[in-house]
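Hi support team,

I submitted a single chain yesterday and got back a structure, but I'm not sure I'm reading the token output correctly. Could someone confirm the output below corresponds to the sequence I sent? I've pasted both exactly as they appear in my results page.

Thanks,
R.
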Amino acid sequence: MKKKPRPQLTAGEIEILEMLWTAGCVTLSAAHKAMKRAIGYTTVQTRLNRLVEKGVVIRSDDRPAQYSAAITPDDVSAGHLDLLLKRVSGGSVVPLVTHLVRDRRLSADELSELKALIEQAERDLGSSTKKKGGQP
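Hi R., thanks for writing in. Yes, this is the structure output for that exact sequence:
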């Protein structure tokens, strides 16, 4: 199954999405007021329209239109992490994980979570191998 492509977003677009994740479904006017910093009304409008075109924000047909996020924070971070992985390590996970494990002090909780993720990946790999008729 092919993953759907994740859009690359600018810092300004992410700022708009963060506002939508907090505020929920809002009109353009409410979106402008909900921004955490002073930003032009037409700038908010332009960014919302671009995000609608990218398919990451939904605009209702109501008058005035209501805007809401169509993606989650995890969707955004995953897209940027995929790009980072591709640019920094040619798509290989190992150099990135090696750097994080060796150059950072991981907490016991982080190590447990990483172990659980690896165990799940091994189970997933085993079940996909069995479905294809191969050896686990």
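A quick pointer for reading it: The chain has a mean pLDDT of 87. Let us know if anything else looks off.

Best,
Support desk
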